[in-house]
Every structure is written in structure tokens, then in C-alpha cells.
Amino acid sequence: MAAPLFRTSINEYLECLPETVLLRLYQAPATCLAVFRLQPPMAQQFVMTLLFDEKPLAMVNLNAWVQNSSRSKQYDAMDKLRSMHLITESSGYVTLQTIFRNGLRLAIVGGDQTMSFGIPCDTEDRHKVDIKALDDHASKHWESILHYMVGTGAGQRPNPGVLQLLKRSGLMEGTSPDDMHITNSGFQFLLQDVNAQIWTLLLQYLNMSEDLQMDAVEVLHFLFMLGSLELGRDYSTTALSATQKIMLDDLRDYGIVYQRKSSSRRFYPTCLATTLTSDAPVLLTPAACMESALAKNESETGFVILETNFKVYAYTSSPLQIAVLNLFVHLKFRFPNMVGGQISRESVRKALANGITADQIIQYLTVNAHPQMRKSTPLLPPTVVDQIQLWQLELERMKTVEGYLYSDFRNNAEYDVIAKYANELGVMVWENRSKNFFFVTKEGNQQIVDYVKRRMEHR
Fold first, then answer.
1. Are residues 15 and 66 both part of a single domain?
2. Which long-range contacts (CB under 8 A, 24 or more apart) does 146-151 make?
3. Cβ(104)–Cβ(47) below 8 Å
């Protein structure tokens, strides 16, 4: 099966899969439950209405249940169900797809015999791991990835497999691990909640699955299974396929699962795994230290104060938050619970050079604004917002290109011949025909020189 093009959400990824692949997915009750959870509320309501009814439902009856003011939500819900091949329609009647209906029934009533919800270990772990240890493990591994992205130097460098994924997904770029730097997409990644960040990497992992000789269906089965497991409980690896055991090694590097060692026959899902398909509250910024999957943190209420004189005060002690600010703020001082600095032309230009846009800077400041700032309208000082955008426009107005200027031709005929040759090569950047000037790229200059030499020798 050819992997779909990279998508921004798990729903988009699933909607692009062929029907035959989706039907294979629906053979696992845990996957059916996960797919049900990913649907919008009205779509879930339609599914539950049809789940235990063997008879097709007339569309006119379905329409009668929805108020006219919610008709757009109904159309959206039906489109989602159709794109996921969860329903079949015929002659004005609708019914649930048989394989999906059977799988979801088993998931709800607890009749799953396929072990798609994992196999809990029946022996006690001598090295019992509690929930706090699992949260520490998740936080350590996930934040090491984020620290590496923003270049704090804190934490252990992620494994080569993680670095390859960061590069392939376009979140970072560079020729070597020491040369990698964050991209525009990477900064946007930092603005996402933790759950969305995890799925961003997992979706790229799915796209790489064929290159890794892995069955995408088994990969999805395992991810959806992890989303249904119980936090703090250990599960056996005996029923995992060869593909899923490879995944277990990879997911340890992300902090999604915990294994004491690679040869262990048991594994624990962490808070990052158990919220993959849930509606649990998520963290608003990547700087959160996850002492608990549902824990509140300072960034949820906002911690940044921006003044009209471009000064920034951030009430945080998180090295990760400070490193993110340092991408576009010139930091000048630091206290135990606060850092301060200033947004300047140079600091914004440095961010722009790294692929971060003015809109992303403004969005970050808006999302993380201190509660005191939220009492003002508008939220951010307009003078600062306008100036950040103007600094970006400055760079867009002018583009520098290294190259060579050709002039002092003997006559118009000579100019026309050489200029035509440069144009045909595609190396001409600028031309002033009235003054017989043209400018070529640095890379194309040698070809023009060789051409001029050949003409002189011919004479």
C-alpha cells in the first residue's frame, strides 16, 4: 500500500486511505473505538444510533432529528462518515459498515477476543513502575526532543531515528546533527499542544513505514491500541507482531512507552500514549513539564507581558520556554522565576532568517499572554504588532544575489549576443538594455566567461 501524502492530522491521514485498507483496520475493535472517538460529536451520535439497529435508517428520519440551525454540522458529520467508509447508503437509506459495526460493538460490550486492547501481564513486575515514574520518563524523552529543536543544549541528544524524523518532517534542517536548526514548520510545531505535536511526528512515522518495510495497518493498530491502554498498567509483548515490536523500540525514544530494557517482555504506556485518542485536556505550549497527563501548568494561563516600548517580561523558569523566547527576543536579564528582554529589529530579523514568520511571533505572544494583558483591548500593543510585520516586509522588498555585472561592451551587437546566451542559460538576474548592462549569478559566471573566450579565439 502506498502511503498517502503527508497530512496535518490523523483524520486527514485516515480519510486518504483506500477503502480496502480501512476495512482491514476495522477488523480490530480497539481501532474501531479509536476511530469513533476521532469523529465529531454529531457523527458519533449518528454512529451510536445505527450501532445496534440491524435495519437501514431512512435519511428523511435522520434529517428530522437535526434542527435547521445545525444543518451544516449534519452535512459535515455525514461527509466524515462517508470519507471514512463508516456508512453505506442505498436508495435513501443508511446503515453502518458491517465490519466497523461488529468491531465497535465488541469494543463497547467487552467481547473482544482478538486482544486488540493489549494483554495485561499476569505476573507482577519486580521492578514495579508507578505513574510518577512513567510521567518522568515521558517528560524527559519528549522535552529532550523540544530542547534539541530550540537549541538549549539541555537534556540528552535524541537518537538518530528521532533526528531523521525531525528532518524528514521539515521541522528541522541541516547537514549534520550539530548543524540542525529549527524551520518555519518547526516553530509552528512548538505552538501546538502536546497531543498535536505527538501526532505530527507519528503521522510522519506512518509515511515512513513503507520505507522501513512496515505494514501501515499494523502501525495504526498499535498506535490506536496504545490510546486505549490503562496508564500505570504493564502489558505483555507476546502478542505483538514483528512490526509492532520494532515500533516499541522507536516509541521508547519519544517517551510514548516505557520498557526497562529492549529485551523485556512487558511495557508500560505513558501519559503521551493514553491520550492519543482521548479528549483529555492538553497542554497549550511545548514547555510543559508533564508531572501528570492532565496537570495544569503556568503556560495555560499565560506568562508573557509585552509593553509598548517592545520590552518583554516572561514569568517562567522553564529552560524550554526561555529558549523559545530567545528565538525572537533579545534576552537581557534573568531571575529565578522571570526573564526579561526586548524585541528588536535584529532579534526579529534573526528569527526571520531561521524561517519564523512575523505572524508566528505574534501568535506565540498572543497564545502565551499574561492574564493581566488579557484585560486590555487589543491584547497586544498595536505599535509592536505593526512594527514586527514591517520588519518582515523590509526583507521581502529586497533580495540579495551574489554574482557579476557585465558592462563596457564594444557595441550593441556584441551585447545582444552575450546577453542572449546568458538568458538562454537561465543565469541572468537583471538587465538594462538601454545602458548595455546585465548581471548574472555567481554560479553561471564561469560559463559566460568561457563563452566570451571562445568568441575571442574564433575571431
1. yes
2. 146/190, 146/286, 146/287, 146/320, 147/319, 147/320, 147/323, 148/180, 149/182, 149/186, 149/189, 149/190, 150/182, 150/190, 150/320, 150/323, 150/324, 150/326, 150/327, 151/181, 151/182, 151/323
3. yes
Same domain, 156 and 263: yes
pLDDT single digits (tens) 332-346: 999 999 999 999 999
pLDDT band at 27 (very low <50, low <70, confident <90, very high): very high
Number of domains in the chain: 4
What pLDDT score does 155 carry?
A: 66
pLDDT of 449 over the 70 cut: yes
251 in the same domain as 222: yes
Regarding pTM above 0.70, the answer is no
Distance between CA atoms of residues 285 and 357, nearest Å: 18
Per-residue pLDDT tens digits for 1-20: 433 334 557 888 888 889 99
Do the domain assignments include residue 122?
A: no
- Which structural domain range is residue 426 located in? 403-458
Q: Which of 397, 424, 449 is the last residue of a domain?
A: 397
Residue 453 cell numbers, joined? 573566450
